[in-house]
Design a protein that fits this description.
The complex is a heterotrimer. Chain A is built from nine helices and ten strands. By secondary structure, chain A is of the alpha/beta class. In chain A, helix 5 runs parallel beside helix 6. In chain C, helix 9 packs across helix 10 and helix 10 packs antiparallel against helix 11. The chains are: A alpha/beta, B mainly alpha, C mainly alpha.
């Protein structure tokens, strides 16, 4: 896999009168993990939605791998190399864990889904799904219906699905949301493993984790970027501290 | 997993038994009933690709059914085309109309989609009854729809036509089985389960839904043509919203989302209709009652009984 | 002039019907396919009451109550069983109800057309702006307008309205606060049935009372509800006016195309503005 480039110019997203994202321009460093932090309502998830195509922009552009993808629908951005995991787990609950991954693998492998043979005949696709299954550590749960998994395992599957398209740019929206203390270390280890060599954007409220895994930090407040830089620099930044004053995290 | 295989095999056995039993009954009563069942079953199987697999509740499939029938009838009765070509044309006609409808209907989803398909189909019914009388014969319909002329066999003998229908049914069933287990079928099921995720994974959700619609249109068109030939007659009733409703009832009664469920649903519907109408003219209301009860208590239809699914979760897959 | 009156009377008749449908959808999230069947039932029961008592007014009073009771029964025995589930089960159920209601009506009243005579009080024409207008049509306009205002006030300004809106917005919360959500649901459904039946009685002197009347009217209802925005009373009023006036114009100027106009409007709205032409941000009214 290669580390893709992602750039956004003057992104604006409004909901009615509310400016959720108010002119965000940033060039994300390739191959690095950039954490996006900020108080609640700062527009972090909305920005991510704008980048992945889940939110319509009222201005600005998104450049993925040198290509302007602003007008592209979600599925086309995925095909262009953008992966995404969601804050609210979106998996295929009634299908087995392996089937979930196979579905992702088929999407990645074929633009037009084959209809002339049963799915199980496509060995290569199954092998790829099994490989990712292994990577996310859910091999022993392969046949279980995805909906019966523990929350932490579901979050792992969520990440696995995003991973299957071998994205050059990966957007992770609160991958640790709702993950209990006992599974936290495993989840963080998984994240560290999969982000190696990719360009990753991470939204996460757990500050310890963010500080630990991020190469860069972007601080958003009220729809705009307040500050950006290394974790150490951001921690020391007075403006950032002011913005976080009164916010519990 | 094995329960599903055993259950499906049992359903297949029941259907096979029905087909054989009809042939064994002397005279035409058996084959006539099952001929009707097989034609509607083909319609229902195609419909379920959209309804049970892709998860779109279309209330307008009568349009595809009827238009297929009218295309074939027109070509055969007014232009002397042979049966098989007319059948192919019916498939194409159904598929094209399905494509056209989908362009409109898929701009909206869920409830609005259902309403829009209902409205579009009913509009076609109104057009067929009045303005397009020249092609449809208006409310009187068109009589004299011919049977196939193949291999020197007299298909005007209902028993022979029955065999033809069995062959077409089996072919249609096999094709649908293949489609459903293929990556395409899986993609449709994924879209029904979580379309946001499916789109994020790279699936062109709209195009896939449209494809399902088009395939179901071809099935509906073919079955419409087969029915017209079975009855030697076609009328706008085939386009009426009650026809759309009937196929929905059959699919739900039988078990939406399963391959063989809708076939059993059709059989149950037609059997009930046949039996009840001998005792009362209110058989449709009684079927409505059965349908209501099934919707409340038998969530996965008859298939649910075979596949061991009681009342939990959503519809099954096959 | 007469076109305008016809248009207005059609509009208000349509509104009477659509109001019930949009209410049930807005409050319960259920699109009641059987709404047209309830309208038909109202007309038939109204016919029966008028026949037995000799009074149209008795029919107008009694029939909607009878149908409302039946509606409550239907909701309790069927819909309440499937509320937790996917919406499709509710749609399917109401569809099944149509079949039952249709045949039950056939059982009781047979298949021939029924006639409900216009009440004596309103039988004659009235002179208005130089044209002779049937008094009954004016009655429909007045009656419909009164009902619209009442509905608006009831839902927007009264305590019941607030309860209903609360129960629809957040049933769990409402029930925690002591609102009996199940009862509210049955009540709203019954009220929707009441309005449908009332529409049926009011329509009876104008249209032939027959078994197919439910379906022809349901499409119109859907159009109104979709154009007006699901759940909005104000939207339903405006949309009814649009449709009623267009219809009347159609009858006068282009009779052959009248039916198709309705479809075209519905299809166009669903495609280009599915949230409705007159939708407001809020829910009821």
């Amino acid at each position: 896999m290669s580390a893709g480039t992602l750039k956004c110019n003057d992104i604006r997203v409004s909901f009615g009168g509310l400016k959720a994202v108010d002119g965000v321009s940033y060039e994300f460093r390739p191959g690095k993990l950039t954490g996006i932090i900020g108080p609640n309502g700062a527009g972090k998830t909305t920005l991510m939605n704008a980048l992945s195509g889940h939110a319509a922009t009222s201005g600005g552009s998104v450049i993925l791998g040198g290509r302007d993808v602003t007008r592209l629908p979600v599925h086309e951005r995925t095909r262009a190399g953008l992966g995404r995991s969601f804050q609210m787990t979106k998996i295929f609950a009634d299908m087995s864990v392996l089937e979930n991954l196979e579905i992702a693998a088929f999407a990645h492998r074929y633009r037009v889904q084959p209809f002339w043979a049963p799915a199980r005949r496509f060995r290569a696709v199954r092998e790829r799904a099994e490989a990712v299954l292994e990577e996310i550590g859910l091999f022993r749960l392969a046949r279980r219906p995805a909906g019966t998994l523990s929350h932490g395992d579901q979050r792992a599957l969520e990440v696995g699905l995003a991973l299957l398209s071998d994205p050059s740019v990966l957007l992770l929206d609160e991958p640790l949301a709702g993950v209990g203390r006992d599974q936290l270390d495993g989840a963080v280890a998984l994240i560290e493993k999969i982000v190696r060599g990719r360009t990753v954007l991470l939204i996460e409220h757990n500050m310890d984790v963010v500080m630990k895994v991020s190469d860069e930090l972007v601080v958003m407040v009220r729809g705009r970027i307040l500050s950006a830089g290394s974790p150490a620099g951001i921690r020391a930044d007075k403006a950032v501290r002011a913005a976080y004053l009164g916010e519990e995290d | 997993m094995t329960r599903r295989i055993v259950g499906t095999a049992l359903m297949g056995l029941v259907i096979a038994a029905m087909i054989v039993a009809a042939w064994l009954v002397p005279g035409e009563q058996g084959v006539n009933l099952v001929s009707l069942i097989l034609v509607w079953a083909l319609f229902a199987i195609g419909f379920d690709l959209v309804f049970g697999v892709a998860g779109m509740m279309s209330f307008g499939h009568a349009a595809l059914f009827g238009v297929g029938g009218y295309v074939a009838t027109n070509l055969m009765v007014f232009h002397g085309l042979d049966f098989m070509s007319a059948l192919a044309a019916a498939a194409v006609g159904g598929a094209l109309l399905a494509f056209g409808l989908s362009v409109f209907a898929m701009r909206v989803s869920g409830l609005f989609f259902s309403l829009l398909t209902l409205a579009l189909a009913q509009m076609i019914y109104v057009l067929a009854s009045n303005r397009l009388r020249h092609w449809t014969g208006g409310l009187d319909g068109i009589a004299g729809v011919p049977r196939p002329a193949l291999l020197g066999v007299d298909f005007y003998d209902n028993r022979n036509y029955y065999l033809f229908l069995v062959a077409v049914f089996v072919a249609g069933l096999a094709l649908m089985a293949l489609l459903r287990t293929s990556p395409f079928g899986r993609a449709l099921r994924a879209i029904q389960a979580n379309d946001v995720r499916a789109a994020q994974l790279g699936y062109n959700v709209n195009r896939l839904r449209q494809s399902a619609f088009i395939v179901s249109g071809a099935y509906a068109g073919v079955s419409g043509a087969l029915l017209a030939s079975l009855m030697f007659y076609i009328s706008p009733q085939m386009l009426h919203w009650t026809t759309s409703g009937d196929v929905v009832i059959m699919a739900v009664l039988g078990g939406k989302g399963t391959l063989l469920g809708p076939v059993l649903g059709v059989a149950l519907f037609e059997l009930l209709k046949e039996e009840l109408s001998q005792y009362t003219q209110y058989w449709y209301g009684l079927i409505g009652l059965v349908f209501i009860l099934a919707t409340i208590f038998l969530r996965h239809g008859i298939a649910g009984l075979f596949l061991g699914r009681g009342d939990e979760g959503k519809g099954g897959s096959s | 002039m007469s076109t305008i009156v016809i248009g207005l009377s059609l509009s208000f008749l349509l509104f009477l019907l659509a109001a019930g449908l949009t209410l049930v959808f807005g409050m319960l999230g259920v699109i009641n396919f059987a709404h047209g069947a309830l309208y038909m039932l109202g007309a038939y029961v109204g016919y029966q009451v008028a026949l037995t008592s000799g009074s149209f007014w008795a029919a107008l009073l009694v029939a909607p109550l009878v149908v409302a009771a039946l509606g409550a029964l239907m909701e309790r025995s069927t819909l309440s069983q499937v509320y937790g589930r996917d919406h499709i089960y509710q749609v399917l159920l109401t569809f099944g109800l149509i079949l039952v209601i249709d045949d039950a009506t056939k059982l009781v009243w047979g298949m021939d057309y029924k006639q409900v005579p216009t009440p004596d009080l309103l039988a004659g024409p009235v002179e208005l702006f130089g044209a002779m207008i049937p008094a009954y049509r004016l009655f429909i306009i007045g009656f419909g307008a009164a009902v619209s205002i009442l509905l608006f006030l009831l839902l927007d300004r009264s305590k019941w309205g607030m309860m209903i809106r609360a129960a629809s917005a957040d049933p769990d919360m409402a029930s925690t606060l002591g609102v009996d959500v199940a009862r509210v649901r049955t009540g709203v459904f019954a009220f929707g049935a009441y309005l449908a039946a009332m529409g049926g009685v009011v329509a009876a002197p104008l249209v032939p009372v027959e078994l197919g009347m439910g379906f022809s009217v349901i499409i119109d209802c859907f159009v109104v509800v979709v154009i007006g925005g699901l759940g909005s009373i104000r939207g339903a009023i405006l949309a009814s006016l649009l449709l009623g006036m267009t219809r009347a114009a159609g009858y006068t100027f282009a009779t052959e195309w009248v039916e198709l106009i309705t479809f075209v409007i519905l299809i166009a709205t669903l495609m280009f503005r599915p949230q409705g032409l007159f939708s407001t941000k809020g829910r009821a009214a």
